[in-house]
Amino acid sequence: MAKSVITGTRRMIGHKVSHSNIKTKRWQFPNLQERRLFVPELNRHVRLMVSTRDLRTIDKIGLAAYAQKAGLSLAEIT
Length: 78
What we know:
The chain is of the alpha+beta class. Helix content is 27%, strand content 36%.
């Protein structure tokens, strides 16, 4: 199943509501992207499945800091 490597974001269940207000189950998928990110601490690229929200945070604070904040080490991600 599609899942973010760092935060574990995965699909959620919700309701599709028709005009007559009939509710049926549907899946809400996160916006996951497979990206090749450079890790300066390892001096190499890493291919990760991350959400776009994760990408914005990685741009701000860096991949190593974000992984540490999530309780992961870079060895676990690669």
